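User: Can you help me understand a structure? I only have the sequence.
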Amino acid sequence: MSRDSAGASAVIGSVQANGGSAQRQAPTRKLRPLRALLPYVARYRGQVALALLFLLLAAGATLALPQAVKLLVDGGLARPADGELAERLVSIRAHFGLLFGVAVVLGLATAARFYMVSWIGERVTSDLRQAVYAHVLRQSPQFFETLKTGEVLSRLTTDTTVIHNAVGSSVSMGLRNIVLLAGGLTMLLTTTPRLMLIVAGIVVLVVLPAAIIGRRVRKLSRASQDRLADTSGIAGEILNAMPVVQSYTQESAEATRFSAANEQAFAASVRRSGTRSALTAFVIIGVFGSLLYGMYGGVLAVLAGEISAGELSQTALYVMIVAGSVAVLAEVWGDLLRASGATERLMELLDVRSPIAEPALPIALPVPAGGLQVCFKTVGFAYPSRPAQTVLQGLDFTIEAGQTVALVGPSGAGKTTVFQLLQRFYDVGDGAILIDGIDLRRSRLADLRARVAVVPQEAVIFSGSIADNIGYGKPGASAEEIRAAAGAAFVDEFVRRLPEGYATFVGERGVRLSGGQRQRIAIARAILKDAPLLLLDEATSSLDAESERVVQAALEAAMAGRTTIVIAHRLATVQRADRIIVLDHGRLIDAGTHAALVGRGGLYARLAALQFAA
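Assistant: Let's start by predicting it. Here is the structure, written out as tokens:
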């Protein structure tokens, strides 16, 4: 196995262990994973600058309110009793006007901050989700051998939602309350410095234990998200196999299995919520107690004539601002810890590098008028997930342009592996595969795969219309081209009987179609692609005898002018191939025409005798 493959296996194994293993290893660095979000936020510097501006305006207006109240109390309510009533009312109206002006600034700035921060949160989350999805689409099949699809979907949905809440709300609230906390403490220290120094010391004693509890919250947050991903993995696997589950009457067993995973997720969430609640209660009680002590000192100072009633009101409001800020920061800290775990899980996916890499200096593949020449030169291969089990050993053959060659052999002989290597889903371990004399590893993946059309044994049908599924073979194809391909594959035969014709919705995975209809659509898709290399993996295995006859005729017409490789267990479908290659345990043991192979005896003759006798 190559070094790249080994490295990718290690990373994927790490992803799987973190997503599905019972023993999690949460990093001790609490918020460091959030740094990975900075490049996504930095793309929108203008919006971030506006959000910060509105944040500062809102915080400044909040901090100005206690000062305005002080002026109202000392300049309006606390004037000498012998003052003119009219003069006092004018002063009071002016101070209330000032308070209203501050409230207007606070309201507008808060609304603008909320809008900008929400926009940034939605945009960053959308970009991150798109980046992860696009990255996963480019991974080799090796990635999906070890990681459940449900796990990937959980990270794309649940984890990005957690990050959205953090970026779109918690970060903004955290910054705002840090400003309020700093400003409030500064004003308190200015008015009653001696008492607030004592309070600050008490607050430090509260913060240190809170940090220790916060580390525990983050570990539990990661575990909770992993358990939730486990339930998504189970659900995704089972929902995609409902006919099998129901045919074996395993509904109750699967419901029980999901229930057990769901209960584990619930238990992990409860542990996280309980620890986070304890953290919040500890911080609020400790800080409020500290600040109430400072306020008590302020009351004593008023009684001693050291400060005015307005200054006491100002101090009380600043105490409320500081205490409220600390309470909010405790909540924000918990949100950020959870977002840190979610970011870490997403970054694990983005850090995975496919071992199937693009060449540094790619060589352009030719654009042949006919088919491609395919050459296997002493190819050896073992799947990265099973490195000790050799699948192909010294495989050596050449298929000339325009030939039709069949691969025959018992299950496990390596036939499907040949198809996967030709599309470079994996790289060979030994030897090389050449297309028109060019090593596959020296060409761009898109160029290579654009020259290959595949009809798999199990037809893959997407949710959408029949026309959409056929047109998948050639994006942008006209309706006439789609209908021509459909006619060649005898799709038109059953589409004419459907009320909506080619616009008929086929359902998820084509559940509204029969197996033979799905297979014909897959054949039409390959015909529409019109690639110089056609790979047929038991392409007619799902068809009835009549459909097989007509589709076989369509396939023979599609083979003209291109290289075709056919995998077939039913030997009657390959008798007219130009050459038949017989594989067994990953080795080429014989090759020739049907008549020559039968005449020589051996594995092919035995298989033919069994099938034709039957």
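Now, to help you interpret it: The first strand starts at residue 374 and ends at 382. The chain is about 65% helix and 10% strand. Let me know which part you'd like to focus on.
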